[in-house]
Amino acid sequence: MKRIVEWLPALAVFVLVVGLWEGLVRALHVQQFLLPKPSTIVSVFWSDRHTLWPAGWYTFKEALGGFAIGSGLGILAATIVGRFRTLGTALMPIFIAANAVPIIAFAPIFGAWFNPISPRSKMAVAGVLCFLPVMVNTLRGLNSAKPRQIELMRSYAASELEIWRRVRVPTALPFLFTALKVASVLAMIGAIVGEYFGGSLNALGVLINNAADVFQFPLAWAGILVASLLGIALYGAVVAAERVVVRWAPDTRDA
Amino acid sequence: MLAHLRRAGIVALAVVVLVGLWELYHWIWATAGWTWPFAVNDTSMPHVWTIFKAFGQPAQVNQPSLINVLLHKTAFTAKEAAVGFAVGAVIGFVLAVVLVHSRLLQRGFLPYIVVSQTVPILAIAPMVVVWVNPKLPAPLQGWGAVAVIATYLTFFPVTINTLRGLQAADQRALELMRTYAASRWSVLWKLRVPSSLPYLFSALRLSATVSVVGAIIGELPTGLQNGLGGAIFNFNEYYSIEPQELWATDVIAAFLGIAFFVLVVMAEKALVRRAPENVA
Amino acid sequence: MSVVEIKGVTKTFAQGNITALENIELELQPGEFVSLIGPSGCGKSTLLRVVGDLTPPTHGTVTVNGKPAHQARKDGDYGIVFQDSVLFDWRTVAKNIALPLEMLGWDRERRRTRVEEMLDLVELRSFADHHPWQLSGGMQQRVSIARALSFEPALLLMDEPFGALDEMTRERLNLELLSIWEKLGSTVVFVTHSISEAVFLSTRVVVMSPRPGRIAGVVEIDLPNPRTAETRYTPRFFELVTKVRELLRSRGEHLLPEEEELLEADR
User: How near does any CA of chain A get to the CA of C240, in Å?
Assistant: First the structure.
């Protein structure tokens, strides 16, 4: 009961915004191509579902592939660099600088490498986008082990490998999941925005871009809705995995 | 001073190593004729020196050199990103201040701001540009719509982080302020805002990069030719003939992103005089 | 044979050219409870870490159970308890206690029995499946003690284990520690800031003085066993506390403010 009351204001805002939007568009006779009514978007979302969802799924697979490859390589790289502390600290400024590079700008190059129509080129964009935050955060996590805990392990005559397995990895897990949550969003962005530079006709990004080009805004917004739902789904999956793996934390809700 | 020199040395060394790896990869793959993951040749991976030579040559006949053209385009994109970033940061900050004082508004709006962090928000760039652009007054035509994208990309992380920071003020310090019978206003400026700065800056660091990305992507649907996004789109068409021009443009775009980030980090260093480990 | 033999141990830190320990000689007999006490910077924690082979001495030797300290560490001859409990957040109470047993390669069944014994010993049976953040500071420290004792080390090293706790919890844990010590008969090296705690717990109190870290004197504690809460009110207890306090005083007419504070706090 209390939870419902807590959510009431959010619900009210939703109803108010959608109602105002719908009402104003109707009352002021705003033309469809400027701003479609929510009801129009929803009806297109339903009527074009046979185009929208396959396109969404196509793009989602690209995002998922990029997410898996990029995050996997990020974890691997962090593990390797983490073995050599001085290397990690020396390279850190470079990773941070690389993180500030607008990777999306390189999407056309990935298109040229892998053929812009091929899903592999979008996977590459999504993968590179995921790689850096995952790598940087995992590395930070591996290096955040408390000195006392390591000392305790030393008092048990633990080997470096054992310290790594029993102290460094568990310490790094919350850091890793923070990065994976960021990466899940970046993967969707990479796939969709990568498609804005060109891609297969049955991809969501291409569909949104083309619809916007010819002022079919209801379809474009319905496409955005699909993209958002898929994005939330991927994010939710990472959060669920975090709750299973990081069971010890007092509160993993804090995203 | 010595530490700075050493750092610069490491960065320079890393750049040299990266260039070396690039050329080595090129050489091995091209010589062996390997096509996985992609075929390597002078088009897919132009030589580093080819890219740098491209800066000095004109992109088209009877035009100034590429670097000249690109710098103008960079300035244009930087303007879009910077204006959008500044406006977004201010709106985000103000909204956070409002939200921290009203539980009701927080419950009403916060869920959407949180969800906005989990959806591919950059995807609506084309819609925003096409929708906003016709409504703008003449001097803002074109670049103004792109700045709007940078604004809203900046706004979300800034709001959420600032709110977290404002709430992160030490409970005991809040009670101390209460013993002074401090007004909300002075609690805000003397306690909440200072303690939110590290949070604010971690959002700004993120937004700095994102606003550049937003500006570049925003230029695509407007068909604007004055910025880096337009240049990338154009040079992409001619990639098979002159790949080095797209590469050169991307190198400049990378520097723009890094420059934005570094500016924010420098501002943070000047403003937040503590917790040096927060710099990264 | 003595459990710990410290011979001519000197420890200098290159940074700042500090002599943390100078020519320390100390021998511990089996079953002894020895406290190291002194103001901050007297090197008492450093001495403990040297015994535990967590930091090497610059000169001198440390022998534990007749072996070099390094070998003793490899053999798992001692358990250690730090000031903060150093529990692993990701492990439950039971799993934290089992950690050293896992490292020693005990099988699951043997681990389970031992962990249950230890949980009973520190009276935390009903918290076996809790995570550290769900426990109070005192409970966390009890888990930490149980972990250190779980593999029955001949030697227990404790570095201000109760320093972060409130006075009441501290006195209760003092009693618990004594009863555990009497039950197990292990040898204990106990670093503390508190004179009364040192006197109450120990069979011997080693008073140290700073700059450079030296042994200023040793006080034999001849209070009757078992000690109870009432022991603290006996005249002999006061005499011994005074004796330790005078040793702490004697070394310097010029005490630093923080040393004065230490003496004041214990009055």
Answer: 34
